[in-house]
Structure formats: C-alpha cells, structure tokens
Amino acid sequence: MDRNKGAGFVTAMAGGGTSNGNVRVRKVVVVGGGIIGASSAYFLAKRGVEVEVLESNGVACAASGKAGGFLALDWNDEGGNPVGPLSRASFTLHKELAQEFGPSAIGYRLISAVAANIPENARHEASKASYLGSVSKETVIGTTETCAQVHPEKLTKALIRGSSAKVTIAKVIGINRSDSKIASLRIEGGATRPIAHDEAVVFALGPWSNLVSKELGLPTFYGQKALSMVVPTDPPLSPYAAFTNWRGKNPEIYPRADEAYVCGFGESLRMVTEKPDEVVPLESGERQLRAFTKEILGSMGDGVPVRACHLPLTEDGIPVIGSLESNGAENGVLAAGHSCWGILNGPATGKAVSELICDGEISLIPKWAVSSISPARFPSRTRSR
Ligand SMILES: Cc1cc2nc3c(=O)[nH]c(=O)nc-3n(C[C@H](O)[C@H](O)[C@H](O)COP(=O)(O)OP(=O)(O)OC[C@H]3O[C@@H](n4cnc5c(N)ncnc54)[C@H](O)[C@@H]3O)c2cc1C
C-alpha cells in the first residue's frame, strides 16, 4: 500500500464532488506563515483553493525572514537522498517565480560559490574581484549554472501576496479531533477555528511542529539556533557565496545587490521552547559573528544588529511532507523540518502540498522520494484519538 497517496484524505470529505468521484477541498487553513506555509498558500491558490493563514507573530518573522536564501540545484543529490528530487524541482520553480514576481522584487539572481579557508591572523585585502581578498585559499564549489539566491523575506511575503490568502494573527495552541479528522483548531485566548467538511489544514510550523507531533504520534521536532547579520555594502560585493573555515567554525557570506548576509555560529540541537519573537542570540555567538564580520567586511558591520533564528530539524534529518491520514487526521497535511534548505525547497514543498490536497497524490517528485519524506515513514507511536 502506498501510504502517502492520501486518496482517503481527499475522498473522505463530504459534498461538492468532482467528476472523478473525489471531493474538492474548497478552503485550506495553513498554520504558520514561513516559507513553507507561504509556498503552500501560493500553490494552493493557483489550483483555485481559498487559503487562510493563521500565523502567531507575523509572516516571515522566524527563519524564513532571517535565512540566507542560497539555492543549489544538486547539492542534495548524493547517496539517494530523497531531498534531491525536491531540490531539483524547487530550483526550477524559483526561476519561474522570479519571472512571475520580477527578479529584483524577490532578490533572485544567479551566483557562484566558493569554499574558503581563512587562516588565523590573516590580513584582509579585499579587491574588486574578491571580497575575501588575499586572506583565503578558495575552491570553486558551485557555478551560476547550478547556484542562485533569493531574499527569503521578500520571497515569503511575495508568495503570501500572490496567494491572496487572508492572514490572521492567531496562535494555534492545539487541535481537537473527531472521527480521525481535525474538527477544530484551538486558538490562544479561548477561541476555536472549526474545520468544515470541505476544508483541510496544513501545518507548516517549522521547529514549532511539536504543537501537533506528539498528539499525532510523530517524532519530536528540533531547532538549531544560528545567528545572522545583514550588512549594508557600498559598493556591492562580488557575487559569490563563501562557505568559510574560520577558527574552526564555518560562517557563511552571501552578498546581495546592496548588502551582505553573514551567518553562522549555531548552537546545539534542542526542542524549541521560545516563542518566535523571543529567539535571541547567545552572547558568545554574537561576539564571534561580529569578529568574523569585522575581519572580512571591516567597519561596514559596526552597529548592525545580530539576529537569531532556528533551523527546523527532524530526528532523521529529512523533512516531513505528506498526509496525516495514518496519524489520525485525514484532513491534515504536515510540511516541516527543512533544515538548512527550507528556502530552496519551499516552492517544491508548496507545490507538493497543493498536489496532495487537490489530486490526492504528489506527482512533482518520484514515488520513492514521496514515501521517504512522508509522515507515514515513521513507525506508529502511541497516539491519542
Ligand atoms: C541562519 C540561517 C540561514 C539559512 N540559510 C538558508 C539558505 O541560504 N538557503 C535555504 O534554503 N535555507 C536556509 N535556511 C533554512 C530555512 O531558513 C528554513 O529551513 C526555513 O525558513 C523553514 O521554514 P518554515 O516555514 O518551515 O519555518 P519558519 O520560518 O520557522 O516558520 C514557521 C512559522 O510558524 C509560526 N508559528 C509558530 N508557532 C505557531 C503557532 N502556535 N501558531 C501559529 N503560527 C505559529 C512562526 O511564527 C513562523 O512564522 C537558513 C536557516 C538559518 C537559521
């Protein structure tokens, strides 16, 4: 049995049947307004589905507004990684989105990438050709054929606008189920959002997915805090991303048209307990990020705030995308745990979610990859109904 097919998810709903006997989902409630929720909203709207987004703080307020936005066609290809086909599909979708929204509106451009070893006490001499100057040994690891970048916050907001979704600022604190379906969402403050027979729910909560994982018998989701700065640059830096080795750490730099995004100094993996607007940098990480930025970009980063956010992670390092039918919520879909590739894989995830809801199965990527990313891959755990 192909447990991810989700045919039951679509057919289980009453009313408004389509010509093939399946039931059309009229409206979807997306919980979480990051890149995954926004992409789901966008591709569902393209299929004619009305979307409402419930977001606790603000669209792109977490990792999706603070990420680097580096995209690579084939960096997830190795070793039969099921994320590979998703990334390839998403890389192409990013190109199409850039045409649709206009490249500069979402900060899309092709770039190359280098691995750079920056020795201790090296003197930095930037040149027009290389902002890393003479301090590093560089190896080209990506070209403009296979690498690109976007501005994650601009893209996430453009996708929400493009979906015409109604965005409601509301913190979902739990779900009520009945007959193996989500009957309503509990909202902080005492309200509930009933889920009608022709509605479905997409959970796109990133590292906050434990909101539903325990109740639905899914493994724990984790977050790994990482820090970033956005430094204005005039003139612009040469357009290549740098993956560096600096004092035993691996900070990264992504130049953009008029600024440079610098990130790194992650903490260890843990369950996320802070609210999205309470994620702050640790002092030691902030000190290191500032020292690195000073060494590479000189005084340009002085006074620029350091931000923190969580990479969303799963137990096995693979995102969870698919129907929650076998978890006792047949009108629910989960899309979370995209680690350091959520911006790259957002559009393909959103398209896959729209296919699952509108067609009953994901056809964007091969079947073996669909089942490898499905929630049904986890052995069933105790779950309350
Ligand atoms: C420093 C850093 C750099 C990165 N760089 C890149 C990169 O270059 N390329 C790349 O592809 N990826 C990158 N990533 C990864 C990428 O940012 C994430 O994988 C992606 O943003 C995850 O998106 P998401 O929508 O799943 O989660 P999030 O962006 O975390 O969104 C989840 C949303 O859910 C909301 N929410 C939480 N709880 C509730 C609730 N109870 N009710 C309602 N709403 C709720 C939150 O407010 C938030 O808006 C980077 C990540 C980090 C940390």
Report on the architecture of this protein:
- A seven-stranded mixed β-sheet has the order 6-5-14-15-16-13-17, covered by helices on one side.
- α2 (35-46) runs parallel beside α5, α2 runs parallel beside α8 (342-359) and α4 (83-101) packs across α8.
- β14 and β15 (252-255) form a beta hairpin.
- It has nine helices and 19 strands.
- Mean pLDDT is 90; it is low at 1-21.
- The protein has helices at 7-11, 35-46, 63-66, 83-101, 152-163, 210-213, 283-297, 342-359, 367-373, and strands spanning 27-31, 50-55, 70-72, 109-110, 112-118, 137-142, 147-149, 166-169, 172-178, 181-187, 192-194, 199-203, 222-232, 240-246, 252-255, 259-264, 307-313, 320-323, 332-336.
- It has a domain at 1-62 and 156-218 and 319-379: 3-Layer(bba) Sandwich (FAD/NAD(P)-binding domain), CATH 3.50.50.
- With 385 residues, the protein is of the alpha/beta class.
- The chain is globular and about 65 Å long.
- Helices cover 25% and strands 26% of the residues.
- Flavin-adenine dinucleotide (FAD) binds next to α2, β2, α3, β13 and β17.
- InterPro entries: FAD-dep_OxRdtase, FAD/NAD-bd_sf.
- Residues 27-356 form the FAD dependent oxidoreductase domain.
Topology record:
Layout: H1 7-11, E1 27-31, H2 35-46, E2 50-55, H3 63-66, E3 70-72, H4 83-101, E4 109-110, E5 112-118, E6 137-142, E7 147-149, H5 152-163, E8 166-169, E9 172-178, E10 181-187, E11 192-194, E12 199-203, H6 210-213, E13 222-232, E14 240-246, E15 252-255, E16 259-264, H7 283-297, E17 307-313, E18 320-323, E19 332-336, H8 342-359, H9 367-373
Parallel strand pairs: 1-2, 1-12, 2-8, 5-14, 12-19
Antiparallel strand pairs: 3-7, 4-7, 5-6, 9-10, 10-11, 13-16, 13-17, 14-15, 15-16, 18-19
Helix pairs in contact: 2-5, 2-8, 4-8
